[in-house]
Design goal:
Layout lengths: L2 H6 L2 E5 L6 H8 L7 E8 L1 E6 L5 E5 L6 E10 L1 H11 L3 E10 L5 E9 L5 E4 L2 H19 L3 H10 L13
Antiparallel strand pairs: 1-5, 2-5, 2-6, 3-4, 3-8, 6-7
Helix pairs in contact: 4-5
């Protein structure tokens, strides 16, 4: 396979939520997260809300919105990385194509985002900055508890090191 064919088989995603955090990316993707080609970007025509009873966002299309949703444009993602991201997002989400803009030059490019497959209940608006400052630590705890790994929560809190279990396969 030549370089052009290799590039054609990759995807561009826009991370607007928890995947903006490097530890979340490393937990989901593993060591490959450090090799991702990431640039700051933004999306217009959507709004972010907190999914009810969680601390992560969902995105809703809103053509009347002129607010910028900041995030990361992740370029050159191969099938293995996409598969891990799809597993992390779960069965309630699918990918949809949108136009995003790179901050460096405002160039418009096509990327995919994760959107709910069906209507999920949501509450107030969600911002990455508030999540990172106030809720990030609870995000990892919630995932460990959801996977039946409650016994690991105390150890993880003590070390603040998340040796993520089988890159989101989570075997306790």
């Amino acid at each position: 396979m030549n370089l052009v064919e290799s590039i054609a088989k990759t995807k561009i995603l826009f991370f607007y939520g928890t995947l903006r955090d490097h530890e979340v990316r490393e937990a989901v993707i593993g060591d490959r997260a450090k090799q991702l080609n990431l640039v700051d970007g933004y999306l217009i025509g959507h709004k972010l809300f907190r999914v009810k009873n969680t601390n992560y966002p969902l995105i809703v299309k809103d053509n009347s919105s002129s607010n910028k949703i900041n995030g990361l444009v992740a370029m050159g993602l191969d099938k293995q990385v996409i598969r891990k991201l799809d597993m992390f997002e779960g069965k309630k989400y699918s990918r949809a194509e949108v136009s995003v803009f790179r901050n460096i030059d405002n160039e418009k490019i096509m990327a995919e985002i994760y959107v709910p497959k069906k209507t999920l209940q949501y509450t107030e608006g969600w911002t990455y900055e508030n999540w990172h400052k106030y809720q990030r630590k609870f995000f990892f705890i919630m995932i460990l508890e959801k996977e039946g790994c409650d016994h690991l929560v105390d150890d993880w809190l003590l070390t603040w090191q998340l040796p993520w279990y089988a890159n989101a396969g989570i075997i306790c």
